[in-house]
Amino acid sequence: MNADTAKRFNAAGAAITVFTVFCAVVWAFPIYWGIVSSLKPEDEVVRPYIELWPENLTFQHYWFALTETQIGRWYINSIATAVGTTILTIVTSLFAGYAISQLRFPGRQPLYWLILASFMVPTQTLIINHFVLIADMGLLNTWAGIILPQLISPVVIIVYKQFFDQVPKDFREAAVMDNATEFGVLFKIYIPMNWGVTTALSIVTFIWSWNAFLWPFLAVTKTEMMTITVGITQVTDAFGVYYARQLASAVLAGFPVALAYLLFQRRVTQAITLSAGIKG
Q1: Structural domain tally of the chain?
Q2: pTM, to two decimals
Q3: pLDDT mean across residues, the chain
Q4: N or C end of the chain: smaller count of CB under 10 Å?
Q5: Could you tell me if 69 and 54 lie in one domain?
């Protein structure tokens, strides 16, 4: 590679870097603006011009959210429903993926095709059916009513199936020869070989459940049973909307998810890559 070619490559790399940084700033600015606005008095928030930093820094809106709302209860509801959804989704998807991958039973292939076809059905189209079923079962305004309709996650089943398909058959044959049951084969061989996948899928499922809004919004009408994503919409005042209070509540709602992403970034990226590969 001669000097001119090297210079062209360096110039192209610099241009790509500048463009990437620009895109990152554009993406991050709304987050920065929301956090900064939550630290401003309300009269500064509604000013007709832009201020990139608070003139009078205040934490009163966070104090209001923590002391004058039911945000503690909303946190408990979100944690309970997100953890419950994650555990049940992973367990059921694990069993389903193993059965489709390793067992031979009538209807196995049509069942797998049905799971693949479910990607073509948007979750929003099932909302009415879910609401009617949950209402008929008397589970509105309950944790179970929030959790059950969120257990439909075909991508997790397919990811598990693909990874179980990649496990060498020799391991299963050796375990069967030692009189191991199907549960023994699954828990002693297949799961230990796929702990990384399970961890990644668990984290992403938890984040997805925590961020869910539409179904919890429809399934819950009592303020004390709301998840935090729905509850923060109730942070209003008798005299109108206080934007800084709502932004402070939104920051508090998003903090656990942001922290989880920062702590488990590699696992989250792995799960997103797996899911994108399946959907592609």
Answers
A1: 2
A2: 0.82
A3: 84
A4: C
A5: no
Tell me the Ramachandran region of residue 23: left when phi exceeds 0, alpha when psi lies from -120 to 50, beta otherwise.
Answer: alpha
Sign of CA pseudo-dihedral 251, 257, 258, 260: positive
* Better-scored residue on pLDDT, 102 or 7: 102
Q: Tell me the C-alpha distance between 99 and 190, whole Å.
A: 12
**Claim to verify: residue 168 and residue 48 sit in the same structural domain:** no
- Predicted local distance difference test score (pLDDT) of residue 236: 66
How sure is the predictor about 1, in pLDDT bands with cuts at 50, 70 and 90? Answer: low
Domain that holds residue 23: 3-59
- Which letter does DSSP use for residue 187 in this model? I
**Can you give the pLDDT at residue 136?**
93
pLDDT for residue 172 is more than 50: yes
Which residue has tokens 């934007």?
243
Q: Of 11, 43, 59, which residue is a domain's last?
A: 59
| Local structure of residue 270 (DSSP, 8 states) | H
Alpha carbon distance 76, 82 (integer Å)? 10
Place of tokens 């693949």: 116
- 76 with 148, same domain: the answer is yes
Residues 55 and 92 in one domain: no
Residues 6+ apart with CB under 8 A from 103: 182
